[in-house]
Each structure stands twice: as structure tokens, then as C-alpha cells.
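Contributing: when you submit paired examples, paste them exactly as shown. First protein:
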Amino acid sequence: ECWIDFAPGTELYGKFGFEHRLSLIYSLDEQGVMVRYRVQNRDERTLPFGFALHPYFNFLGSRESAILCAPAQAHMEAIDLMPTGKLEPLEGAAFDITEPTPVPELVLDDVYWGMRPEQPAWIEYRDAGIRLELASSAEFTHLVVYIQPQNNFFCVENQTCSTDAHNLHARGLVKESNLLLAGAGETSEGWVHYRISSLQ
């Protein structure tokens, strides 16, 4: 377990002036790696926040054998990589990854909306015979996917909110942003479980 405090007088507090502690708890089990977050609001005001993990994944075997599926409900329109708040349909679009798709066919730096715990994103490494499931608690409604052909890695990132969530929320886009709110003295928690299994 590790933590960081946003306390008055610190540089972090100067950039985001709400007194709170962010803790991360890592654990290893028979399925994979669990990462839990805990946000403790120590302020007298409501804390508006989002939390995201930003892992990158190497290719195991040929690039073509890496398959990605993310059963999101919508894609977030973006201008200069910043979401506008508009939700776009996925079916048939170039950014549709709701069905298993070879990673080399994709060029993305995109935000997806409407992820659900019962339908997590997953990656299959078919040459290696490995499946990686990105299970999460219900707070993780968004997913950022970054795939560029020049890289020997790709990113699939569980997020509790959209990129630019504070500004989207301020515009009244509550559902689209999913900015989390922790009341004074409250604690908010969630988790991502990277579950590894065999394809055999």
C-alpha cells in the first residue's frame, strides 16, 4: 500500500486545492493483480475527482495475434484529443472495438463510455495462449485506448471518468463525464483486477 496527501502548503495542494489522501493497494492473487484505490476526503467541501490507471501492454508473439475487445456503449467525440461530451454510436465505425479486433488494425487515442462490470474489456494473446481481462468495479465507466503503429506496445486504460471530466461536468454533462463526488469526510473506493487465464 502507498499513499499521497494533498495537504495545505504542499505543491500538490497548490495545483488541486482539496485536502485529501489518495491510497493505492496492490495485491497478487491466483487470478492476477488487483489494484485498489481509496480517496479519503479530509476537506470541509465536496471533493470532485476521477481516478485512472494507465498501463501499457507489450505484444506477446506476433502483433497480429493480439486481439482486443471493449464492449463499451458509446465513443466520445473529441477535438484535439479533448472530448466534447457528445456520445457517438460504435457500430460500424473505425473506432468500434465492441467485437474482437486485431490490435494492428487499429489506430486510436480515444475515450469510450459506458463500460460495465459484467462486460469488461479483454485482450487475447493468441500466439501465447493467454487472455487478460480488465475487470473493474462499477465506478470505472470509461476506457481510454491508445494504439499507434510505430509502438511496440498499446494501452487500455480503465477510468472512472472522461478525460476533461471537471470541465464537462461544469457544463452539465454529468452522465458523460462521470466525475465522482466525495462529500466532506467521506471515503470513496474502487478497483481494477487484471485477470490472467489460459486460452486452452
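Second protein:
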Amino acid sequence: SCGYPFAGLPRILEFAHDPRTKEPRQPMRVVRETPVSVLVDGGNHIGYYALYHAARMAAEKAKQSGIALVGLHNSAAYSGRAAYYLELIVRENLVGILFSSALPSVAPEGGARRMLGTNPLAIALPTGGEPMIFDMGTAAITQGELVLHARLNEELPEGVAIDENGLPTLDPHEAVKGSILPFGGRDRHKGFGLSLSIQALSLLAGAALPKGDVQDSGQLFIVFDPDLLAPQAL
């Protein structure tokens, strides 16, 4: 869990309550492939498993062709830190970018209805030493943190969530019934715009294919050899 309390045992408890856990699983399969791209159906496997294999595919494809686009859909939402999968890629001396969409839990500024997931993005660059990896969510708090606060009956920080009527709340139980807010403070529209863009990119990864819902889980890897642009610069 790398020091994130919500990402250990509390996350395992969430698996058991997720409706997708009870749905059948199939082998992961390649839906479409070109010399520089792969579209993958995750077979409803948990995100940790499906994203690991998608990351390996992206690294191998980029090593062969110099650049790779890998889209993953139909995997259970829980996938942990995006930085973990990019570290697998960047250790191969490749640049990696990962966009991820999720089920709706975030409302736009001024709205009361969930519209988008917490939709993280991550970027990794090799340096010749330890890689530079940046990993962030586009919401003011993660869904895992919200659920953990509810389990522990701990108040939320101010300004991260609203109740089902769209009113600010510090009560995690009310926030579970309501929505998380985008990150950005007074500039939340920027966090929401970034999240919306990630949701759209995830549609290219097939997010809407399993259930026909554009508000669903999808991951898009963009991976390339830095020598394509600046040989020996990194």
C-alpha cells in the first residue's frame, strides 16, 4: 500500500462488496492489435491483475516499435497506484503515461450529481538513475479515503465532498451517499475539465464496450522510447 492506509486491508474489504466481484470472469483477450497498439478486454479481472499485464504489453510493444498505445477495459475498478505500473515501464528506459477513468463518484463544481470517476493520471520518465514518476487523482480525495473515513467514523477534511443534496459536508456517510468534489479549490473547474478529458481518452480504451456506459472504467497507456525525440537526453 506504500504508506496509504486506505490501500491495504480496507481496500480488500471493498472487493468483497463490489458487485463486479460476483460477476463471472473470462480470460483476458486482445480485441484489436496493430504494430503500435493493442486494445485489451480485461475479462472482468481485478484491475491489479489486468493492468499489470497491460503494462507489460505496452512495454514490449514500445520496445519493438518505438511507441505503443494500449487500451484496457472490462476490468474491476480496483487497481491501486498508477505509479506501480509505470515503474514497470520506465525501468525498461521507456517514457510512460497512464490515464484511468472510473465509475462515477465526483460531481462538478455547483452540481449535485455524480458525473465522473476520481480519474487519475500518471507520467514516468527515465533519468539514468531513479525514474521521475508523477501520479495524481483529479478529485479532492480518493474514493478509498472516503470509504476509510466512513468505516472509522472520522470527519472528512473541509471542501472535499457534498451530500446528496449538493451541500458541503464533513460527514463521510453523507458524502458516500453524495459526491466527492474535483481537486482545485476555487479552480475546481480545472480539475473537472482534466477529469472529463481523461474520461474521454478512456473511451478510446473501450470503457463503454462492456456495458455501453461512457461512465465506466478504462485505462490508456501511451508509451514510447525517448530516443525517438532526443537520443540520450534522459
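If you have annotations for the second protein, write them as plain sentences, like these:
The chain is about 30% helix and 20% strand.
The mean pLDDT is 90.
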